[in-house]
Amino acid sequence: MDVESTKASLEGINIVVGWLDKASEYLKPFKPEIKSIVINYKNQRSEINLLLHIPDGIRRKLHSVEVPAYQNFVVQDMMDESFVRIGGLWQYEDGKWKLDPGKLPKSERYLLMLRGTVPSEMLDQLVRIQPAVNRDQTEEFDRFWLHCMLRNAALLEKMWQELSIDEVNVGVKVGIERCFSTTIPKELKGRLEATQRWIAAGRGKDREEVRRAWQRMREVTRSSKVSVEEIVQTIYRLTTGEAFATFLAVDDPYRIGEIRREERLVGLFPARMAVEATTELGLKKPTAAGYLSFKKKAYTSEIKTSLDKLGV
Amino acid sequence: MKLHIAPWALPNEAMPIHIRWEPQFDFQSATVSIPEGFDFVEFTNLDEVRLEGRKAIVDKSMVAKGGSSSYFGCVICCKQIPKETSLEGVVLISFVHHERVEFSRKLRAKIFRPQLAFIDAPETIKLKDSGTVRSLPLHLRYTGFGDVQLRVEATIGGNIVSESGSIAFEILRRLWLSEFSEKEGDQTVAKKKETLKVAPEYVKAIADEVQQIVDTGQVPTGMFDREVFEEISEWLQDPHRKQVFMEVLYSRTEDMLLGMLVDLLESHPATNVRLVDPRAKISTQIKAPIEKLMLRLRYRDLLGNNYDPVEVPIKIIDERTQAKPALDIPIVIEKWEDKPLLNVAGV
After folding, report:
1. Which of A153, A186, A255, B12 could form a disulfide with B69 if both were Cys (CB 3.0 to 4.6 A apart)?
2. Burial of B6 (0-12, 13-18, 19+ CB in 10 A)
3. Cβ neighbours of A204 in B, within 8 Å
4. Cβ of residue A187 closer than 8 Å to a chain B Cβ
């Protein structure tokens, strides 16, 4: 194992930290103080808030402050003590963010807000995320364990007094095929049996049987009151994120995030639903463990009710 | 002190552990001992760690230097596939200060696996002039934990004699065998507006696959007679007919949807089992009067662990004296005994 790789992985973090250090260096006369760093894991955006102290004397002395631009980090805004937005005083020129302190309104302290995108590799180096590969099942529900932790809180803490990583998302694939396959309505069963017979006939060599099975399938289809299309639409409705969310539960400190159908080419039923559980991590809360549960019994019964309503 | 271990895992699945303590808790070193068969995979929030066999020793100086990040983590994994459906090991965590154990706790590392078995399979199959063998019925059992993908395979003398049935082949075959004609195709064009519009990409994919089968001429034995296949291929060489064929394919969306439903039912014979090929069949020529067929269940879990296949021998006695057509026997799993382990987190 892998102390070496732990050390190596920090290099990625150092790239961003390095820039922050550099920026701090340029802002040194203003005694920059990092108020917060928030990284949104999901959209990879990072928000760094620096408190600058610019007393009158310095403001008059300095003609210009320049901070070199780094990747896609930008000066998003700046506020004075009375929350007046003065971000417009920063200008981007020749790869540098420039400010003329003389133009600053009278204030002791200013909040400088930097925004940028954090490369996904860096996020991987910051956070370790893992859901259970396989569900644990009971009669009522299926559940997955979720786990995430900061990989190196100590190093981050040394550099940044306050760090939080929002929307750390743990992706879970919840299998739902079984809920549908156990709920095929009776009327449809007749058609399915006819179809099965046709398929079985197709496997053999008896051309006459194929013809008979085909006719039988046509008869059943003609007498059927419900179209397959209606059934398909019902299934679509039951697999929207909104409908599916009501059958999910997560333990604190997780929340349910985005829910998507995971389409296979097979098209009719999504085999699985892709569910995101999100949480925040920070220096004071470096780990998060909990369960995501799928109430499969309730979901199966909802499928049944919906199909019953179609009169199948 | 807060300790956590992943509540369950498959063999080879990483199991994260984290250990958090109050900032005022003082110690000189912490030790994580893992059971036999387990390995350390990763450590978090440590600058350094000392490994002594299956023990990881962490001096306080190697951990978080800051005050509020009083924790470290490690990830372990069971590298062996257990023989039984479950295996439990103890992870011992202890903290020592001034040569005294200040804190110690055991965490349970629980590993589970799936297990398949034959309950019943025919010992012999007799081939006679008078009739055909309709199917090879099986009775199987699932126990343990974890969803599996199952492939049923048959071999004679080491050669695989089972064959999968692609749905595209089946549609092609059925379209051919049923009332597939130009006339139907023409009617279909007129009726097209009334037909289902769902899953067109699926129909397209099937049509493409069928097209490819026809173009490459690769057709599995047993699916069609060679001459029938050639007949279809020749028939489809005509661009107009090909168009008609595609129209027919589209007009049968509803049949295909039903077929997919059937497929869904047949692919999930037990709660934790998905059949890779629900339409597998034995398809071969029998050359000797007595052949030993080996039926094998190959299965793997969601992590990709392959488990030792389960086998059962079946004797094929060929008593046919007249024509000896190739065998064409669907493998049918008639019965499942489904006994998964429930609530493994709470066990």
Report:
1. A153
2. buried
3. 328
4. no
Please answer yes or no on whether B16 and A137 come within 8 Å at the CB atom. Answer: no
> DSSP alpha helices (H): ranges in A40-140?
56-61, 120-126
One domain for residues B24 and B95? yes
User: Nearest CB to A214: which of B6, B179, B265?
Assistant: B179
- A94: burial class by Cβ within 10 Å (0-12, 13-18, 19+)? exposed
**pTM metric for this prediction:** 0.79
**Would the CB atoms of A157 and B69 count as touching at under 8 Å?**
yes
Are A199 and B48 an interchain contact pair (Cβ–Cβ within 8 Å)? no
Q: Residue B21 half-sphere exposure, CB side, CA atoms within 13 Å?
A: 21
Structure tokens at B207: 């049509």
Residue with tokens 């350390």: B40
The list of chain B residues with pLDDT below 70 reads 64-69, 163-211, 213-233, 235-237, 241-264
Structural domain ending residue among the three candidates B247, B266, B285? B266
pLDDT at B267: 78
Count of Cβ atoms closer than 10 Å to residue A196 Cβ? 19
pLDDT at site B134: 73
Q: For residues B160 and B280, state if they share a domain.
A: yes
Q: What pLDDT is attached to residue B245?
A: 64
Q: What angle do CA B29, A287, B56 make, to 5 degrees?
A: 30
- Domain containing B84 — which CATH number? 2.60.40.740
B22 domain residue, yes or no: yes
Q: From the CA of A268, how many Å to the nearest CA of chain B? A: 7
In this structure, the answer to whether residues B95 and B6 fall within a common structural domain is yes
Q: Any idea of the CA torsion for B230, B233, B235, B238, to the nearest 10 degrees?
A: -150
> Between A and B, how many CB-CB pairs are < 8 A?
204
pLDDT tens for A18-40 read 667 777 777 888 888 877 788 88
Domain holding B60, by residue range, is 2-112
Q: Identify the pLDDT of residue B194.
A: 38
Q: Which of A10, A124, A125, A134 to mutate to test the interface with B (most CBs of B within 10 A)?
A: A134
Instruction: Tell me the DSSP string of B64-101.
Output: --SSS--EEEEEEEE-S--SSSEEEEEEEEEEEETTEE
